[in-house]
Amino acid sequence: MQPTEPAYRRLLIAQRNEITEHRIYSAIAARTRDANNRQVLERIANEELRHYEFLRNMTGRDVTPDRIKVASFRCIIVIFGMSFGLRLMERGEKVASDVYEAMGKEGADLTPLLADEQRHEKDLLSLIEEERIEYAGAVVLGLNDALMELTGALSGLTFALQDGRLIAATGFITGIAASMSMAASAFLSSREDRDQHAGKNPFKSAAYTGIAYILTVLILISPYLLVNNVYASLVIMLMLSVLIVLGYNFYITTAKGLKLWRRFAEMAIISMCVALITFGIGVLVRTTFGIEV
């Protein structure tokens, strides 16, 4: 039976997705050091190619992969790690399963493809374990502390000093000193864990914590250097802090398969409450001590 025109278009889209995912899985497999993981990824890549050929027999056409999507996933894997990339691919497998199930109800015999896609979801979940995720706690420590301390400090300094460059300089000095302190704490904590049982590398934990802290400091003080109005800088700084919270939580919840919005809301609300309280303290300090800059 010939598929209807809408069904034919959906088959072509599914066919292009299959050859695209074949290229992506092949690229991930080539970067994977673990032999077992590489074997699983190569098998999935080969099955995606078979799916493409199955659909090509139905459509009678060849299609090219989405090169932009392939290149994007290559960049994602390099920058954010294999775990994050695999989680995104696992979501794609779920979407493919839903599409094939819906098309099956319309009369298309896609049972073999549907079974494979559902198995791919399970296979991908079994592969997710990586250093970048293992050290997520160190990054959380650096980000959390920097956000809480710097949003609070910069909010208080905004009203107390009312000079953008002075606020930025004070925040930078405070942030660098605090980043060194946090990195040292992370080092000692990780070394203690390693002494008790096999744990993380203390130097890597310290590096992840310190770098996360310093990057957060630089982002948060940047509005005070680029915008003349300190209150506009304050608003931009708070918006940036919310975006940092959202970006990190999207990364970690995707990589670990957790729910995003509850974690994001918790961190964002706490950061804003700290900023509000310290802004009030800044008002009080300026009024009480009669600070004029």
Distance between the terminal alpha carbons, to the nearest Å?
A: 81 Å
Mean pLDDT: 79
Computed Rg? 25 Å
Q: Please state roughly what percent of the residues sit in beta strands, choosing from under 5%, 5-15%, 15-25%, 25-35%, 35-45% or over 45%.
A: under 5%
Could you explain how this protein is built, in words?
- The protein has 293 residues and is mainly alpha-helical.
- The protein folds into two domains: 5-129, Ferritin (Up-down Bundle), CATH 1.20.1260; 132-289, no CATH class.
- It contains eleven helices and no strands.
- It has helices at 5-31, 35-59, 67-80, 82-105, 111-127, 131-134, 136-161, 164-196, 202-226, 230-256, 260-289.
- The termini are far apart.
What features would you highlight for this structure?
293 residues; mainly alpha; Ferritin; 11 helices; 86% helix
In brief:
Helices cover 86% and strands 0% of the residues. With 293 residues, it is an all-alpha fold.
Task: List the SSEs and their pairings.
Layout: H1 5-31, H2 35-59, H3 67-80, H4 82-105, H5 111-127, H6 131-134, H7 136-161, H8 164-196, H9 202-226, H10 230-256, H11 260-289
Helix pairs in contact: 1-2, 1-3, 1-4, 2-5, 3-4, 4-5, 4-10, 7-8, 7-9, 7-10, 7-11, 8-9, 9-10, 10-11
